[in-house]
């Protein structure tokens, strides 16, 4: 009697602990209490170093959020530890990606990427897969990203593909409501600098061809580190990924001074699991990058 009660209590507690964290793109597992839905057409306004406001489309304040901006949005990479049977588990977090940092004095004003929604994965293991272009400040303490996801995340989702825009800053996470998409749909993810003044930058991201995915970050830091990324969690088999490859195309970066930056993409492969990034067409004008599963 007593032991079954204890077991039930442990189960309840385990559920409570489990329920308190959610998966976020870039940030991985984060506290559910620190993730916030932004109303359609809304924005995240940086008020000061430790406060952001969530505004609706009419600029009414709907939420005031205390933020610790010294927290990096991407957790440090953890070494995969062997399981009891001696098998290396699949990598978690940023699996394979391409990146370029703008070190020039003229800020990035526009970053576009197009890709097609891949087929649904052959296996279902409760995995979460994210595909996105993104941009971060030099500090790594924020990220703005139009994200395609398969599986569950802080924004919702399930055994289907969906898109949402995300802004993570310090220990807080903001996202739009996910919109279901289907295999083969063409996505156009765009990040735009709408205006700036001194060290204050106003950005908006969206999928240009999908309504209700627009998310603004205003009075934010300058965003410099641009990426094309595959990120994943709870992968138990290579079949938890979609089959084939994803081609990021129409990759265009523009600067405030009107120039096209001189871009050479870096990349990182997950050789152990057989996932890779290939730079097909380098540069900042109609570049093409393929992620192979
Ligand atoms: C995030 O930062 C804010 C401001 O410091 C703090 O109030 C909040 O408790 C933090 N949350 C976590 C989980 O660190
Ligand atoms: C990553 O994998 C791609 C595709 O196989 C290959 O072209 C590229 O050279 C690899 N890069 C590195 C750094 O190993």
From TrEMBL:
Keyword Signal attached: yes
Keywords on this record? Signal
Superkingdom is: Eukaryota
* Leader sequence segment: 1-19
The protein depicted here goes by the name Concanavalin A-like lectin/glucanase
């Amino acid at each position: 009697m007593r032991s079954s009660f204890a077991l039930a209590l442990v189960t309840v507690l385990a559920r409570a602990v489990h329920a308190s964290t959610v998966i976020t793109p870039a940030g991985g597992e984060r506290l559910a209490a620190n993730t916030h839905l932004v109303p359609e057409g809304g924005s995240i306004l940086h008020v000061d170093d430790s406060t952001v406001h969530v505004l609706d489309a009419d600029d009414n304040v709907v939420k005031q959020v205390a933020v610790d901006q010294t927290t990096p949005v991407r957790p440090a990479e953890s070494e995969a530890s062997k399981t009891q049977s001696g098998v290396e588990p699949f990598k978690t977090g940023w699996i394979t990606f391409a990146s370029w940092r703008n070190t020039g004095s003229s800020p990035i004003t526009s970053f576009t990427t197009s890709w097609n929604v891949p087929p649904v994965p052959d296996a279902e293991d409760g995995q979460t897969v994210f595909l996105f272009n993104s941009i971060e400040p030099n500090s790594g303490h924020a990220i703005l990203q139009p994200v395609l996801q398969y599986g569950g995340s802080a924004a919702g989702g399930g055994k289907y593909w969906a898109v949402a825009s995300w802004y993570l800053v310090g220990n807080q996470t903001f996202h739009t409501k996910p919109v279901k998409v289907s295999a083969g749909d063409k996505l156009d993810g765009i990040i735009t600098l709408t205006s700036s003044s001194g060290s204050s930058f106003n950005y908006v991201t969206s999928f240009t061809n999908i309504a209700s995915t627009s998310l603004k970050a205003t009075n934010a830091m300058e965003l410099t580190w641009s990426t094309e990324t595959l990120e994943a969690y709870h992968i138990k088999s290579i079949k938890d990924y979609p089959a084939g490859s994803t081609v990021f195309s129409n990759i265009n970066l523009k600067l405030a001074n009107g120039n096209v930056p001189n871009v050479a993409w870096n990349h990182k492969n997950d050789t152990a699991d057989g996932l890779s990034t290939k730079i097909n067409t380098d540069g900042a004008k109609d570049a093409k990058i393929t992620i192979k599963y």
